């Protein structure tokens, strides 16, 4: 039996592979293997069981040399889309009875406390989009995201993330990377998550980077970002 350590880079909503590759390069330079989960633009408008439905078979099982191997997975969640991806994949890992552990997790520009307040906060940022069609499409998505739990009579997806990461998994060390200048995810929601994680006795590290835009902290302060992530993982991962 062997343990395979992998960082799971979970992209933000609608992110393409090229911008997300900056994070795989970051971890590669530190000596970590990575896999990527890209978040579809409609992932917050459908049940979690339809998000990354094939990821276990196509992404995670090939990481194992034998069925008895244990996957040591470190999710790096970018915005709420990244949180959604990891939440859904973890459901599949459990359902498939895959042997895995999560020794640490990283939140970048996330999470939000609930979809209603999150949609209202992000609405203001749509005025900065370059075209009318982009504004229209984004606002339609925000309206759908806002009303989806009510219409479908399902749990608010952001509240589901919150329940798992901060109530069911308080023991997992967490690193929060955020900016008070974020115009997509309300910084007060991230601060609430930090406070909640600490209140449950969890080991919490925080990097606040003023002036950075949403999911742009790595671009805004690359050396500080890399140093913070490296030190966090060194502190919480067993040497290999």
Which descriptors apply to this entry?
globular; Rossmann fold; 240 residues; 7-stranded parallel β-sheet; 46% helix; alpha/beta
Describe the structure.
It is built from nine helices and seven strands; from the N terminus they run βαβαβαββαααβαβαα. The chain has one domain: 3-Layer(aba) Sandwich (Rossmann fold). The two termini are 15 Å apart. Strands 1, 2, 3, 4, 5, 6 and 7 form a seven-stranded parallel β-sheet that branches. α3 (79-95) crosses α6 (157-168) and α4 (115-123) runs antiparallel to α5 (132-152). Helix content is 46%, strand content 18%. α1 links the parallel β1 and β2 (33-39). With 240 residues, it is of the alpha/beta class. The longest helix is centred in the middle third of the chain and has 21 residues, at 132-152. The mean pLDDT is 91. It is a single-pass membrane protein. Its main location: nucleus. One of its GO terms (cellular component) is nuclear outer membrane. Belongs to the TMEM53 family.
Summarize the structure.
By secondary structure, the chain is an alpha/beta fold. The chain is built from nine helices and seven strands.
Rg of Cα set: 17 Å
Number of domains: 1
Termini distance? 15 Å
Characterize the overall form. globular
* Helix-strand pattern: EHEHEHEEHHHEHEHH
CATH topology: Rossmann fold
CATH first level: Alpha Beta
- In DSSP terms (H or I, runs of 4 or more residues), the helix count works out at 9
State the CATH superfamily name. Answer: Alpha/Beta hydrolase fold, catalytic domain
- Report the mean per-residue pLDDT as an integer: 91
Poorly predicted regions: none
Task: Summarize the amount of helix as a percent range.
Answer: 40-55%
CATH-defined architecture: 3-Layer(aba) Sandwich
Main sheet: strands, sense, barrel: 7 strands, parallel
Class inferred from helices and paired strands: alpha/beta
Beta-strand portion reads 15-25%
**How many β strands by DSSP?**
7
């Amino acid at each position: 039996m062997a343990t395979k350590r992998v960082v799971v880079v979970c992209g933000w909503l609608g992110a393409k592979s090229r911008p997300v590759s900056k994070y795989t390069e970051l971890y590669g330079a530190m000596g970590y293997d990575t896999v990527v989960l890209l978040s579809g633009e409609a992932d917050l408008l459908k049940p979690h069981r339809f998000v990354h439905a094939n990821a276990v078979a196509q992404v995670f099982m090939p990481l194992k040399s034998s069925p008895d191997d244990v996957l040591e997975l470190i999710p790096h969640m970018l915005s709420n889309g990244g949180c959604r991806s990891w939440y859904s994949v973890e459901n599949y890992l459990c359902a498939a009875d895959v042997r895995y552990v999560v020794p640490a997790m990283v939140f970048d520009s996330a999470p939000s406390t609930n979809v209603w307040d999150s949609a209202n906060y992000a609405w203001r940022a749509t005025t900065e989009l370059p075209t009318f069609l982009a504004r229209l499409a984004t606002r339609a998505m925000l309206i759908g995201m806002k009303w989806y739990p009510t219409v479908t009579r399902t749990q608010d997806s952001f509240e589901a993330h919150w329940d798992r990461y901060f109530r069911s998994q308080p023991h997992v060390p967490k690193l929060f990377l955020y900016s008070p200048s974020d115009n997509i995810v309300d910084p007060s929601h991230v601060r609430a998550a930090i406070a909640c994680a600490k209140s449950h006795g969890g080991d919490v590290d925080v990097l606040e980077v003023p002036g950075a835009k949403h999911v742009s902290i790595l671009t805004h302060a690359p050396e500080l970002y890399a140093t913070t992530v490296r030190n966090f993982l060194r502190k919480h991962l067993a040497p290999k």
